[in-house]
Amino acid sequence: MDRRDTKKVLVQFARREFREKRPLHVKVVARKPQVKFRIGFPDRVSIMRRQQTQYLVLCEYEDHVRVYLFSKNAELLGAENLKLTPKLRKELTKTTKKIWEN
């Protein structure tokens, strides 16, 4: 499955979640790769590492966030409820890139 089809499947999943469960907001985000190793100043060589979880679907409710974890082929890897804190919100905005939002 190519990247475009993956994004279509994720957006369809997010729309269905919004329609069925009525959260305040739904977002589809891609995780940014993390820097594992850097050489030189300024960084001439940097080695990036990708996580197994490539995409997240975030369903925001009043007091918590339901996070669905997806692989790069849009396979659902799991889900988790997390407390909605400013620290979590800051970390998510720093380490992800928005694809779709409702």
Description:
The protein has helices at 3-21, 86-95, and strands at 25-31, 34-39, 45-49, 55-60, 64-70, 76-83, 96-101. By secondary structure, it is α+β, with helices and mostly antiparallel strands. It has one domain. The longest helix is centred in the N-terminal third of the chain and has 19 residues, at 3-21.
- Report the average pLDDT across residues: 90
Helix content: 25-40%
Question: What characteristic shape results from the CA principal axes?
Answer: globular
Number of domains as seen in the coordinates: 1
**Number of helical stretches of at least 4 residues:** 2
| Share of β-strand residues | 35-45%
Question: Element order, helices and strands?
Answer: HEEEEEEHE
> How many DSSP-defined strands?
7
- Ends distance: 24 Å
* Main beta-sheet annotation: 5 strands, antiparallel
| Structural class by secondary-structure content | alpha+beta
In terms of quaternary structure, the protein is single chain
Radius of gyration over alpha carbons? 15 Å
Uncertain stretches of 5 or more adjacent residues: none
Reading side by side through the largest sheet, how are the strands ordered? 6-5-4-1-7
Helices and strands in order, then pairings?
Layout (H helix, E strand, L loop, with lengths): L2 H19 L3 E7 L2 E6 L5 E5 L5 E6 L3 E7 L5 E8 L2 H10 E6 L1
Antiparallel strand pairs: 1-4, 1-7, 2-3, 4-5, 5-6
